[in-house]
Design goal:
Shape: globular
Radius of gyration: 16 Å
Bound molecules: zinc ion
Largest sheet: 5 strands, antiparallel
Number of helices: 3
Length: about 160
Amino acid sequence: MTSLAERAHAAAVYIRHNTAVSPHGRHRGEEHARTAVRLAAALGLSLDQITTAPDWQRRRTTPGEPVLATATCPDTGEQYVFLARFPIYDDEAFELLGPCPECSGQVPLALVRHLADLGTYLARPPIRPGDIPEADTVPDTFKVDEGHTGTCRYGEIH
Ligand SMILES: [Zn+2]
């Protein structure tokens, strides 16, 4: 077990290093690195269990393009993909992505700020095709997310 000071130092080095070497440029690199540090902390994982990638599907031209952060469970190898829709705002919840029950596109299924939010989501029965998700169980972005196919009735708003 490493000390808090050592882990804090490692996190700062991680952000500096990844900002400098990012293939996506300094600004994107810093957003990716900060997102990884924030997700690792939220889930109690170490930084080597988080990978990030640009989210080409939800791209914008405004600053702070969305970041996909994948957390890999060190015990089971299971992976969870989180969306930081506005990575420059680091007080915003992550959106846990998973398959839409209707179109199977990767869409936001839960807001996750910390481990207990993920626990609450995992304890719920999955949404089945035809279900109308209750407003407080899926993020507001569920219905408007770009992850739905064009014909998905859950994504009919956009
Ligand atoms: Zn869908």
